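Q: Here's a chain of 1260 amino acids. Please give me its 3D structure as C-alpha cells.
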Amino acid sequence: MLVVADGNGSYGSSSRMSSNINLNKNKDSSVSISKMDLIIPFSPEVPCDNNGQRMWWAFLASSMVTFFGGLFIILLWRTLKYLWTVCCHCNIKNKEAQKVNNPMNSQADGPTKNQNDKEDVPVSEVGWMTSVKDWAGVMISAQTLTGRVLVVLVFALSIGALGIYFIDSSDPIESCQNFYKDFTLQIDMAFNVFFLLYFGLRFIAANDKLWFWLEVNSVVDFFTVPPVFVSVYLNRSWLGLRFLRALRLIQFSEILQFLNILKTSNSIKLVNLCSIFISTWLTAAGFIHLVENSGDPWENFQNSQPLSYWECVYLLMVTMSTVGYGDVYARTTLGRLFMVFFILGGLAMFASYVPEIIELIGNRKKYGGSYSAVNGRKHIVVCGHITLESVSNFLKDFLHKDRDDVNVEIVFLHNISPNLELEALFKRHFTQVEFYQGSVLNPHDLARVKIESADACLILANKYCADPDAEDASNIMRVISIKNYHPKIRIITQMLQYHNKAHLLNIPSWNWKEGDDAICLAELKAGFIAQSCLAQGLSTMLANLFSMRSYIKIEEDTWQKYYLEGVANEMYTEYLSSAFVGLSFPTVCELCYVKLKLLLIAIEYKSEQRESSILINPGNHVKMQEGTLGFFIASDAKEVKRAFFYCKACHDDITDPKRIKKCGCKRMTYSKMSVYKRMKLACCFDCGRSEHDCSCMSGSVHSNMDSLQRAFPLSSVSVHDCSTSLRAFEDEHPSTLSPKKKQRNGGMRNSPNCSPKMTRHDPLLIPGNEQIENMDTSVKRYDSTGMFHWCPSNDIEKAILTRSEASMTVLSGHVVVCIFGDVTSALVGLRNLVMPLRASNFHYHELKPIVFVGSLDYLKREWETLHNFPKVSILPGTPLSRADLRAVNINLCDMCVILSANQSNIDDASLQDKECILATLNIKSMQFDDSIGILQANSQGFTPPGMDRSSPDNSPVHGLVRQTSITTGSNIPIITELVNDSNVQFLDQDDDDDPDTELYLTQPFACGTAFAISVLDSLMSATYFNDNILTLIRTLVTGGATPELEGLLAEENALRGGYSTPQTLANRDRCRVAQLALYDGPFADLGDGGCYGDLFCKALKTYNMLCFGIYRLRDAHLSTPGQCTKRYVITNPPYEFELVPTDLIFCLMQFDHNAGQSRVSLSHSSHSSHSSSKKSSSVHIPATNRQNRSSKAREARDKQNATRMNRMGPEKRWFTDEAENAYPRNIQIKPMSTHMANQVNQYKSTSSLIPPIREVEDEC
C-alpha cells in the first residue's frame, strides 16, 4: 500500500508498482494532502479511480451483506414457518372441537373430508424437494466415489487458493488489477466459482440451514467468494480476508481418511493436531499482515508498517512460544488488541498441542513401515517367539557360508520392539534382515510385510515356556490368521506337543503336500533319544548332520580333531547325473563314495503312479531314474554338485574329485532310450568298459528283445540289476569278466539283494512268504499301517511292577526310562519315545523291554498313548532312589534315558535341569556286584539276531557278547535330556569344558550322553531349503511315522491294530540304524589297521549295509592300557581313515526276513539245544560254557586274521552254493550299547548260520 502523508511520497516497501501521481516539485514540501485522500497504485491502462481512492469497504461490505442478509432470510423463513405452524395447529384444534360438538355431521361428511384432505397434500412437491436434497447429499458425501472425488477436489482447490494468496501477499493490500490481463486473478475467480457451486450443494443438502450458515467453512466462503466478484467489477484487488482459506487445513485428516491413507487412531490424531495448529497459525498471521500493512481506520491508516506475510508468521510463532525477541512487533492498535487475545489461546494451544504432537511422533513405531520387495529376490517372514537367542540361532544356520548363495531376505515380524542386543544383531545383518513391529494376527501387518508375495512363513516356538499347550495354541492361531489372509502361503511352524499337531489338520488350507510342515520338537526329541537307545551316539550324529557347522581345524592328534572333521559334514540334496540312470542304488552309492567322495544315503523315488517317496538305503532292487534326487552327506554344497556334473565319458579317468565339473559333452537322455540300450549302458558301466568293447550283452539278448521289453518296461521302477537280469543269457554265453572284476564292481552273482525271479517290494514273491496264507489272520500283531508292533490294550495295573517283582524278573538288555513329573506337569509325549523302539522292522524277539521309573500319577496320564505297545512296564518310584534303580537292573540295561517334565516350571535357567543332572550323577556314582555277571554274559538279550552262540567257529559271522559285567555306574550307557545348554558342564566331572562353550563342542554331546532341544532349531532353515529333509529325518528317527498315521492318531489318539496282509507286512521291509563291531565277525580283518573305505565297500557289496560313521573310544589314539570307556562320534570318515578293533560302525541295515526264524530248523547243528528263540529280557544259562578267546596277544590276533583270510573261499561258497531262487541273505547286526565293545579282552565269540526259513513271529 502506498500512502502519501506529505510532499514526499512514502511508498510501502512491498509495492512492486510505480506511482504516476504528478506532484509539483516547486511546491513546498510541507504542503500536506487531505488525510482522507488515500492514493493506491494504478496504471493509465487500468480504468481505476484517477483520484486513487481506496475502496476496501466495498469488498468487506459484500461479505457482510451476504452473511447477514442470508442470516436474516433464514431467520425470517423460520419465523414465518413457525407462525404458519401455530396457525394450522389452532385450526386443527377448532375442527376437532366442532367434531365433538356435531358428531352426526362429522360422520356424514367424514369420507368426503378425508378424501379432500388427501388431495390437499402436495405429494409431488415434497417428493421433488426430497429427491433434490438426497441428490445433493450424495454429491457431497464421502460414501460414494463421486462424493469422495468432489470433497478431495474442493480441498485441493482451497489449498490452491491459499497458494495464490501467498503469492499476492507480496503485493500491496489493495491495488488496481485488470481481470483480463491478471492470470492469478482469473485462476482465483475460477476457483471461487467452483466454491460457490459447492456451497449451493451443501446448502441444499443441509438439514439445519441456520447451523450450516454459521459453520466455519461457510464463514470462509462468505469472506472469500464475494470479494472476488467485486474485484472483477471494480477492476481492483483487495487482499482482505483471503487468508481464511487456511482454515480448510483442519479437514486434512478427513481427506486422508477418505483416501484410506490414515487407518490408525494415533496417525489420525497426529494429523488432526498438526492441521489445527498450522491452520490457526497461518490464519492469525494473515490477520496481523492485513492490519499491520493497512493501519488503524480511526488513524486514517497512518500508523501502518510494511510487514511481509512470512514476517507475520514468524511473529506469531515467537509470540505463541512466549519467546518474544522484540525484533518484530505490532504497531497498530488492532494488531496489538488481536495479539492480546491470541496470546491467551495461542499459548494454551502451543503448550498443549506441541507436547502431544512430539509424544505421538516419539511413540510412533520405529519399525512400523512396510516392506518393499526387491525384484529377483525372494523373502520369507519369520514370526512367533522372536528373541535374541532364537533369532541368532536361526540366522547362524540360515545364513551359513556352507550353503549356496542365499538370495533370500528375512523379514521378522513381532509385536514387541527389539531390545538393544537384538537390534544390534539386525544391524549386523542389515543387508539380508529387516524387522517390522506388528502381529501376524492383524491383516494390516500381514499386508505390510507382503505376506502374499513371500516365499514362506516360518513360525518359531518358545521351547522354554511354562505352558506348552498354550504356546502351541498361539502358533496355531498364527497359522490360521496367515492362511486366512493368503491360503497359498507355505508355512513351517514349530510345535511343542505332538498331540497338538492334529489341530493343524483342521485348517482347510493346510496342505503338507504343498510344503506346509509342522516341526514337532517333542516328537523329534523323543525320536533322537530313542535312536540312541538302539545305537548310542546317533542323536549327536544326526543333530550335527542337520545343522550347519563350520570346519574347525585342529593340528593336535586328539579326539576333538576327528570329531570336528565329522561335525563339518551336513545333509544336502542334489539331482543325480543321467550317467547313473539304470544303475542300482548300492552301485551308485559306492561310485559316489569312492569316485566323488560323497556319501549317498537316500533317494527320492517315484513309483509307476508318479508318487514320490524317500527310500533310505533301498538296496539292489531300486534303479536310478532320470532326475532322481539324492540325499548326500558332505561338507559343502559345492561338493554335492559333483553328483550332478558327473559324466562317465569325461570324468571316468579323473582321480581328483575337485576336477569333476560341468562338461561340454551332450549326455544321453536315458529316459528316451530303448530298454536294450539302457541295460547295455548300465552293464558297461559296471564292467568298466566302453559300449563297443563290452561283451556283457550276449547275442541271445538281441534275439530275445521282445521278451526283454516285456520284462523291463521303460519305467525304471521294476528294472533289475543288469548283471542279475542277464544271468539266464550269461549261462549260455559266459562273460569275459573275471570273477574278481565282477566282485569289485558289484555285479557278482552272489550279491545278497540280487534275485532273478522276484522284486523285494512284492511281498507275495518273497521266499517263505507263502506262510502268510497259513497265518492266523485273527491275530493282530501290528498296527493298521504295518509300521509298528501292536498289542491289545493293557490295563496299567498289569504293567505295574513292584520293586520285588522287578528284582525277580532279572531284566537285561532293556531300556530304563527315568521320568520326573507329577500331576501338574506338562506331558512330554512318551509315545514318541516308544514308537521307534517298537518299529515293525524289528522282529518281536528283538524288541527291547522298556521300563518306566517315575511317578505313577504322571505315568497314568501318559498311559493312554502307551497301552498298545508290547513289553512296556512301569515301576512306581523316583529315579533318585537307588533301590528302584537296582530293582530294574540298571547295570544290565542297554540304555538309560533321563527325562523331566518339570523343566519349564522354573524361572532360573540354571535350575531347570537340576533333576536330570542329579539323577545322572546319582547313577554314575553307583557301584554294583559282579555276582550276576555269568547270567548277564550268557543272556540271549545280548546276542545279535541271526547270530546264535551255537554257531561253529568256521562260520563267516561271529556273535557279539558284551563285557562280563558292570561294576560302576559310570560305564552305564546314559542319555540325559537338557533344557539349558550351559548345564551340560555338570554332567561330566572329569571334562574340561568351558561354560561358554557351544553345546556341540562339549564332551557329553560329542559322546552322545547329552541331548538338548536347542539342536533342533536348525531344522527350520533346513526344512525351508528342502522340504524333503524333514521327511527324511522323521523317517530316520520316528521308526516310520507317516502323514496317514498322524491322521489316524488325530482321530483316535491311539494306534489301531490291523490284520497282517501282504501289503502291511511289506511295510516292514525297510532299513534301520545299527552299530557294527569290528573286534569279531566278517569285518574283523579290517578292524586292525584297515581302511574305512574298504569296510564301506565290503559291507555295501556283501550285505547291503551302508556305513556312515564311527563310534570310537575317546582315547583310542593313545593306545594306553587303561583306556577310558567313553566314546565319541565321527561322521562320514574319509576312505583312508584307519580303523581300530574297538570301533563301532554306524550303519543302515536292510530288514532280514530270516533273522527271526525259529532255530528249531537247525536240527542238523550239534548246538541245536541252544538255538530256540528267546526274548531280550529272558536269562538263559547254556549247558556248556565255551572257552574265551584272548584278544590281548598280538600273535593270537594275527593268527586269527590269517585263518580268516584262508576261509575267504569257503565264505563265498557259503553264499554261492545256495539255491539260486533262495531269498537273499542279509546279515543282521543288533544295535548294541556303548559298553558292549569297550574291552576286547572280555568278549566271547559265538556265531550262527542264518536260518533259511521265514520267521514265525512270537505272540504279543
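Q: Can you summarize the key feature?
A: Residues 378-515 form a domain with the Rossmann fold fold (CATH 3.40.50.720).
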